[in-house]
Design goal:
The protein is α+β, with helices and mostly antiparallel strands. Helices cover about 15% and strands about 40% of the residues.
């Protein structure tokens, strides 16, 4: 199973203050849209997403089909296959959005300590 690129998704109180903080750590804006209350920041191969008002908890995020530069990788494990595999292993997703026919989709599982893990496919 290939989970794709990894990032941490942080819920923040002030998007601009958080952007400035992470820039001091050497991160640069890589993607996202401040007008939509989120930015993706990058430092080397390290990705941090900052999100204002979009979700309640920080999350571990995996993007099947993407590398650390949001470039497509092939082959990759489709989010639906990952979902089926994890359900077969006894995990119960808390949120699921898996349209039929392939393409984009996502789901969330929660680890034993309450940390959400988002599997979010964009292609």
């Amino acid at each position: 199973m290939k989970l794709g690129t990894f990032s941490i998704s942080l819920t923040v109180k002030n998007l601009e203050a958080s952007r400035l903080f992470y820039e001091k750590l050497g991160f640069e804006t890589f993607g996202g849209n401040a007008d939509h209350n989120y930015l993706i920041l990058k430092n080397g191969d390290h990705l941090v997403g900052i999100f204002q008002g979009m979700f309640d908890d920080n999350m571990l995020t995996f993007n099947p089909g993407w590398d650390q530069n949001a470039g497509e990788v092939d082959p990759f494990t489709d989010v639906r296959d990952i979902h089926s595999d994890l359900v077969a292993k006894g995990l119960e997703p808390t949120q699921v959005s898996l349209p039929e026919g392939g393409g984009i989709g996502s789901f969330v599982v929660v680890d034993p300590d309450g940390n959400p893990v988002l599997i979010d496919q964009h292609r």
